[in-house]
Specification:
Layout: H1 2-23, H2 38-63, H3 67-70, H4 72-96, E1 99-100, H5 105-130, H6 134-140, H7 151-168, H8 173-194, H9 210-232, E2 238-239, H10 243-269, H11 273-276
Antiparallel strand pairs: 1-2
């Protein structure tokens, strides 16, 4: 788990500036827009927290099980992974200029880290709540199945696409900016395949589209709540995309969160049974009839 996340982080940190260096271009800092940012951001994060707590409570009442009540440690570590993810995506935005805020470069990274701390767990909680809606689950299952491809060949193709996005996307943002933003998900899925682990797309060979559908909807809902709360409280932001494009990016972010959540969950799946179910300490006292 750690090695994959390290490779993922190093690739996102070093490949975009390397691309500019190889192309002989200089990095131009994005121009901040005028307006408020910190107070609206805190309001947006608070609204997302309240939304997550509400859905977690509804999930617990329905199933007597929820992430916040039953898997709190997993949710906390997912928040830490969300901080890293938020910072990396904000770092990529320094080369792509997909959005502009009043924050400086350092402040934008910090703001993204705080947002990611809440966003990734919120996506996981929202996805779990959506999974309890029978209509949505049936909508995503029993669909057409995709043919199973060799894992190694698929990983190599995804790695190539991710490298192109990270090395060419920062130079040709007008034409390959979409591939730059798709690269984090492609890279993470490729690493999962190389490590012989499951991905968010593993169910497609059985015709199960539910994880993709629910993950995308969870990303749209969580990010939509955060953005709407930020704007409603007076936060300034300029998005260089149309509404339908923003929804697609939110959906892709939801899938990325699910994939990161799966990687974090490997720590608990890999524990020996004795660590999960605590045994009685040895030695066990034995009382014979002579001692009675």
């Amino acid at each position: 788990m750690n090695l994959r996340l390290v490779i993922f982080s190093i690739a996102l940190l070093f490949l975009p500036p390397l691309a500019l260096t190889l192309a002989g271009q200089e990095w131009v800092a994005p121009l901040p827009v005028a307006g408020a940012v910190w107070l609206p951001a805190l309001i947006g994060i608070s609204a997302l927290l309240a939304f997550s707590l509400l859905l977690d409570t509804l999930t617990f009442r329905r199933r007597s099980h929820s992430l916040l009540r039953s898997q709190r440690n997993y949710l906390l570590w997912s928040g830490v992974a969300g901080m890293l993810t938020g910072m990396l995506l904000a770092y990529l935005n320094l080369f792509a200029d997909a959005w502009f805020t009043p924050a400086t470069e350092a402040a934008a990274l910090l703001l993204a880290a705080l947002g990611g701390l809440v966003l990734l767990p919120a996506v996981l909680i929202t996805r779990m709540w959506l999974a309890g809606l029978p209509g949505l689950v049936k909508l995503g299952t029993r669909k057409f199945a995709l043919p199973a491809l060799p894992a190694e060949a698929s990983a190599q193709s995804l790695l190539l696409a991710a490298l192109i996005g990270l090395l060419v996307g920062p130079i040709q943002t007008e034409f390959l900016g979409w591939l730059l933003w798709l690269s984090p998900l492609l890279l993470l899925v490729a690493l999962q395949l190389l490590w012989h682990e499951s991905t968010v797309f593993s169910g497609l060979v059985q015709g199960d589209w539910s994880r993709i559908l629910l993950g995308a909807l969870a990303g749209i809902l969580a990010c939509g709540i955060a953005l709407a709360s930020y704007r409603a409280s007076g936060g300034a932001i300029y998005l260089a995309s149309n509404t339908w494009q923003i929804l697609i990016w939110f959906a892709l972010f939801g899938l990325l969160c699910l994939q990161i959540g799966d990687i974090v969950a490997e720590h608990w799946r890999g524990k020996p049974r004795g660590e999960v179910f605590k045994r009685k300490p040895f030695p066990v006292s034995v009382v014979s009839k002579k001692d009675q």
